[in-house]
């Protein structure tokens, strides 16, 4: 059986599951919003979700897409220190479960899920890859050097609202005349693109896809602002 760890809104997970069903491969999906319990009986580990119980020994492979397995549920009390203790217990259970899954065949893992974009940029420079000029700034100093600059999150994206104000963390072009102050941010030189190439590494090979996002004003700066009415064209890509 293949264990899939994802979140309930991830459409690409659904597509992979469709192929697993087509090839009649047994799978089980756990989303980060699912409440699970962990139990160990006679050195055997089990994950219980609703009415389903999974024997970890019967899991042959794990695909970690995103999210986590929420094990060790507890009710918050009015004592912050004790809540902190219970939260630590929950983390220990989750760590133990990851340890039990670590000897399975895996694609991705929870422990390597969060990469530091700043470190990745440094490594890219060291190995000779070309990247835009980058800054960590809170005074718009980099704006003086280029006609256009962009800002993007250094942590996983945020979507939500604060005081009825919608907030997102898409890549944006900085408009200096509209900004009075801001927190320390990741800023890069804006480079006009001909096409956008996304490359995935899997099992020793690189697979590239071209996203024709530059012709749509909605997706021109960040293709994740999907145009569902007229979607960007996607195509396989191979450098000549």
Question: Which labels suit this protein?
Answer:
240 residues, alpha/beta, 4-stranded parallel sheet, 4-stranded mixed sheet, 3 helices, globular, ATP-GRASP peptide maturase, grasp-with-spasm system
Topology, element by element:
Blueprint: E1 2-6, H1 11-22, E2 27-31, E3 35-41, E4 44-49, E5 52-55, E6 61-64, E7 70-71, H2 80-101, E8 105-107, H3 117-126, E9 134-137, E10 149-152, E11 159-162, E12 165-168, E13 172-173, E14 185-189, E15 196-202, E16 205-212, E17 233-237
Parallel strand pairs: 1-2, 1-6, 3-7, 6-8
Antiparallel strand pairs: 3-4, 4-5, 9-14, 10-13, 10-14, 11-12, 15-16, 16-17
What would your notes on this structure say?
- Helices cover 18% and strands 33% of the residues.
- The strands form five sheets. It has a four-stranded parallel beta sheet, with helices on one face. A four-stranded mixed beta sheet has the order 5-4-3-7, covered by helices on one side.
- The longest helix is centred in the middle third of the chain and has 22 residues, at 80-101.
- The mean pLDDT is 85.
- The chain contains three helices and 17 strands.
- It is α/β, with parallel strands linked by helices and 240 residues long.
- It has three domains: 2-112, no CATH class; 119-188, no CATH class; 193-239, no CATH class.
In short:
This protein is an alpha/beta fold and 240 residues long.
Strand order of the biggest β-sheet: 2-1-6-8
> Helicity level, as a percent range?
10-25%
Secondary structure tally: strands: 17
Order of helices and strands: EHEEEEEEHEHEEEEEEEEE
Distance between the termini: 40 Å
Query: Radius of gyration in whole Å, from Cα?
Result: 22 Å
Strand percentage lies at 25-35%
- Count of alpha/pi helices: 3
> What does the largest sheet look like?
4 strands, parallel
Q: Give start-end ranges of low-pLDDT stretches.
A: none
Overall pLDDT metric: 85
Structural domain tally: 3
Structural class: alpha/beta
Shape: globular
């Amino acid at each position: 059986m293949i264990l899939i760890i994802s979140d309930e809104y991830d459409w690409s997970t659904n597509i992979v599951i469709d192929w697993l069903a087509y090839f009649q491969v047994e799978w089980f999906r756990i989303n980060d919003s699912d409440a699970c319990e962990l139990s160990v009986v006679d050195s055997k580990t089990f994950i219980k979700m609703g009415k389903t119980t999974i024997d970890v020994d019967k899991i042959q492979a794990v695909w970690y897409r995103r999210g986590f397995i929420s094990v060790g549920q507890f009710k918050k009390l009015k004592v912050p220190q004790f809540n902190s203790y219970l939260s630590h217990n929950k983390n220990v259970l989750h760590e133990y479960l990851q340890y039990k899954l670590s000897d399975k065949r895996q694609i991705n893992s929870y422990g390597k899920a969060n990469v530091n974009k700043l470190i990745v940029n440094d490594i890219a420079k060291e190995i000779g890859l070309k990247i835009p000029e980058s800054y960590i700034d809170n005074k718009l100093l980099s704006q003086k050097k280029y006609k256009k600059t962009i800002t993007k999150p250094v942590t996983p994206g945020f979507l939500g609202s604060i005081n009825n104000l919608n907030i997102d963390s898409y890549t944006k072009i900085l408009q200096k005349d509209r900004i009075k102050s801001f927190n320390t941010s990741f800023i890069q030189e804006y480079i006009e693109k001909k096409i956008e190439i996304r490359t995935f590494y899997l099992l020793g090979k690189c697979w590239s896809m071209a996203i024709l996002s530059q012709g749509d004003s909605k997706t021109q700066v960040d293709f994740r602002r999907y145009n569902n009415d007229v979607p960007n064209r996607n195509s396989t890509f191979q450098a000549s």
